[in-house]
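Look over both lines before class:
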Amino acid sequence: MNIHDEMKKMFLKVIAGEVEPAEWEKWWNSHREKLEEVLDRGDFGRIMPAEWSVSYHWMVQTQSGAAYHFYRQGRPVKTSDYYEKKAQEEEKRMRQAAMDSFYEQTASARQQWERYLEGHPTQPVNFDWQKLLGTPPGQKPAQVFPYKKARDAEQWKQCIEELHLRLKENVQAKIAPLAKAYGMKKSGPKTFVREKNGLVVRVNFVGYFRGGGYESMDYYLCPIYAIPTGILGLPGHICRGEDFRRMDKDWREIEYGGEAVDAGRVQAINQKFDDILTFLAEDIFPEWQKIDSMETYFAKERQEYLKATETGPKEPWMPWRCMWDLSTGDKKDPWRADAYLFGVWYLLSGKEKEGYACLEECVSHNTDYMKNYLKEYPKSYNDPRDSLAVMYYNAELFVRTKLIADAKERRKAIQDTYEDVCRFMRYFHGLAKRVERT
């Protein structure tokens, strides 16, 4: 059999998924010189990339290159999904092995945090959230639309109304019961909040800017006086783990309102909310439940654990890229939100020197920008949508208490300022109705 016939036979076997990686490598190496003569450089590189190694991941590339070789000859072929499925299993094993190594490397910090929690126990929440998965109870049957994409204003209106109905059904049937189990209340049709021991928890679905459904989800735990930006609030393997990866993709199903919400779309919307529910119920809410006071929130053990989990292990097949990297290196956050966050806490804890130093850094860093900004938007410090202006105004209020010479009066002023700031921040976080301050 000449090289052309043998090559054709082997390529077709690869396309059918009938050649294992080790067998393919052996055949290729034994015919390499002849293959270099009969294949052009493009086909040669696509079929056997320079980085190729014995794995199903690379067999997917080889299969694709072989199929393209026939396509260029005017003979399109149908490829088997065998390598694709095996590659997914292979990647799953590699990711698990990388995560196991990550857990070993962060074990010391995690154990210190766990020992801290043993001395500061919280009440666990026992709630069978898995019963909420699937089709919402009483969900209305899917409509049959005579079109796929909306072409006029009336069709667009129909699509939006149907999408909103399906979102409402899922939020009420899946997210609301879970939030209630963790002591949260509704602060609008798509927002859930809770205040406890000086901490606020908030989950909010962000509306799609072009109209329609939801494009993302905000979720945070922080002191009431703080804004939800700056310091990492969750361990990296939780806020960027497998459940997050699943939750973070395919938001288009609940985002865009310009397509018919037929039976297939309804099923996809239900599945997307299952992913969101799983992420919240398995990862986020249980982690938040461990933290029921500001002392625990700011605990040294917690901060060290968060720091240890900032950077994840390497991605399979992409060793130059981490699964997640939440570290900032030597760079400070551009708003100095962390300086504000810790500054207020230091003041409340009686560490005035450290507290004023942090708050003065926050104020001085933002002064030039905010002076001009407040001229254009003089009431922005009363707007929950303008986090920077709110934070700057709050920090400046605390800094002013430094001018009080008497220690006892200064302590009282700090506490009064804290209470005033919290009164407004309850409105900021959606815990209370509108509050104005002058």
Remarks:
- The chain is about 55% helix and 10% strand.
- The chain has a mean pLDDT of 94.
